[in-house]
What we know:
The structure is a single chain. The chain has 16 helices and eleven strands. With about 375 residues, the protein is α/β, with parallel strands linked by helices. The strands form two sheets. The chain has a seven-stranded parallel beta sheet with strand order 4-3-2-1-5-6-7, with helices on both faces. A four-stranded mixed beta sheet has the order 9-8-10-11, covered by helices on one side.
Amino acid sequence: MKNIIILGSTGSIGRNTLEVVRNLKDKFRVIGLSSNSRWELLANQIGEFNPCYVAFNNNQLVEKLQGRFPPGKFKTITGNNCLEEIVSKQEADIVVSAVVGAVGLPAAIAVLEQGKTLALANKEALVMAGHIIMSLAGKDQILPVDSEHSAIFQSLQSGKPGEVKRVIITASGGPFYDYPEEKLSSVGPEQALKHPTWQMGQKITIDSATLMNKTLEIIEAKWLFDLTVEQIDVVIHPQSIIHSMVEFCDGSVIAQMGIPDMKVPIQYALTYPERKALKVKPFDLSFIGNLTFKKPDMEKFPALKLGYQAAREGGTIGAILNAANEVAVQAFLNGKIRFTEIVTYVEKVIQNHHFIKNPCLEDILAADAWAREEIRKCLF
């Protein structure tokens, strides 16, 4: 029986993780949950899974959450460092980081420093501080939860690191890949949130529509698998059946395939190196029919250019890119900017920032704060 803490338990990845745990009750025990604001759903999760600790940094709602339960049922952890505090609980074996954005970075560092296993869906931690994260990680201490990086991780087991020629990250293309370029500036949040194959939170769904999600995944793959930028390709695959591929030096290409279902990579991260039975939709290629692939259009979706730039140059660019994008996406969701302006503003902030080649954690956090303030000045 392994003890699990789930950061971001009320989000899409968090809910799927709890579904996996629900089906493997004899293998895992949830001892900690966290949420940002969805207190009613969090309360339901607490009632079912009985965690010892709950991180909930919302002073206006914490009393409502606590009022649903008798005193002493669990310890409530609040404050700006609540995620770092909850992952530091000694009895935890695995931490699933399913939070969105830069908030996941300090917690990821704390998990690794204490020698716990990090099941990582929060790609922003590696985007911002990949050199720091990987310097702390032992072998197989970070297990990828993203479907693409889980696919690469699984495919890499077919060879040795020195035999890898390249990895091929697949992208659904989002809802607008075949949309006329001249009409992209007029699309609204409701259209952008209709992802064709995956059910995800708002932030990652918008990132998928701009292909910024692939931008972050390029940087994540570089650090997670110790790759050069030249070893990372992106291909558009609208059916989302092949989740990513690895090409080896002998020309063999190993792909991980399956029906789009986040429970599959989540469960593999939790049970690695074993596999356990999981109820998913049957995989029937004759029913699926055609699998199609397209080269990404970097002029129509310029976010990918920023991804390769950030992966190549490193330093503080990842932190700047991530922070500016978080603010720009929220501005789009709030109706403040156009869809096509998301990447435009991010690129502008990157161009204006003071680049640091080998940043320490303080430099990265300072760059993150600067980028948020800088893009707000541009936007408002």
